[in-house]
Amino acid sequence: MTSSMRRFAFASLTILVAVLPLSSLPVWAQVNPPELVAAAKLSAAGQFPEAIAVYQEYLSAHPQAESAELALADCYRRVHNLEAARDVLKLARRQHPRSVPVLKALGSLEIEDQRWDTAIEALQAALALSPQDLEARNFLGSAYQGKNELDAALAEFNRVLTRDPQNQLAHYLRAEVLADQGENEKALADAESVVLARPNYLPSRVQLAKILVRLKQCPRAVETLQAAHAARQLEAEALFILANAYDCAGQPAQANAVRDEFAAAQQAEHQAKENEVQSKHLVEQTNELARQNQFAEAAELLHRALEKNPQNAFAYSQKAKILFSQGDASGARAAIAQALALQPYQPDFLYVEGIIAKQEGKLDEALDAFAKATQINPKESDAFFEIGKIRLQQGDRPAALAAFKKAAALDPGDPDYQRAVKTASVPK
Questions:
Q1: What is the total count of domains within the chain?
Q2: What is the CATH number for 99?
Q3: pLDDT digits (tens, 9 = 90+) for 211-223
Q4: What sign has the CA pseudo-torsion 282, 286, 288, 292?
Q5: N or C: fewer beta carbons within 10 Å in the chain?
């Protein structure tokens, strides 16, 4: 399986599953307790840090609430903190060793992180408890597929389709396995089934066209991709397939035109990747220059970094730090806002936002930014430390002490944290 096709396959684990509207809530959240209803609404609205805070508070009072653990892990995944999500699910597994939903969530997480063996272990455990769970079986097949154990993957998809002949995810994934094994005639039936069920799902059309070209059914392959091509939706690999389809169908002029598009797209993709790498390296160089207070030189490198990749959020964050060091708080605020617009769940950016707000005397705004940083990453010791300092400044010594203790627990070797704990522990 090519790398892009592998991305299609694993994207299908979520894309091919029906998605609830944002206003919909899980069944368990449609009843009491109200805290979980509120958290589910926050999550559905995309307010994941705020939802995390509610779930954490609820779990502090109900430490074995499985539904809250599952929802919290899902929120961590949404903010790209797979480590925290894994910690939650591992604890949930110890608390609920026979919970199929927990095992499935853990297996799905490990697939996302491409940790195939641990995914397989969790999903096998889920199926030992619930052999008829077809979602778990699809996940297991996908994990085997990721590990390149194609016969094992095929066996799982076959079992799914024996029980549910209309399971389109299993059809899609089985088509990939069969095509990789050279069983194109068999793969064709699966690919056709997915396109029939999901005619607007582009990965399935690309899959079908690839198989049709292999089977020399080239006019059909052309027809399968023509509309997407006209809409300029095809990436380089799909353009390559379409060019081969035109060539095989006896349309050399169209084949040559699409090959030119393919070459341009491939070059653009290569250049974009190269620009991303160069932009990243330039930002890394600015760190050293900034430490030496060579701000003009650092700013020039950041300008070049953003020319290479205008989507480099870390370049904007570094720009914010430099402007802040130069006393330009408004410029720093604008730069960190650009970073957060690109990566709203990056705790480092939230921390910088908090520092800028604190310097401007906007303590509530600073607290909100630091709190979000700790919600997204519970190991953000510096953010807890800053929360403690603001709470102490506001005269809330118990809250300050709690925040300092969290920072010190996360990094016991930091003397500033230890001193802060002692200071906040002394009655005023």
A1: 1
A2: 1.25.40.10
A3: 999 999 999 999 9
A4: positive
A5: C
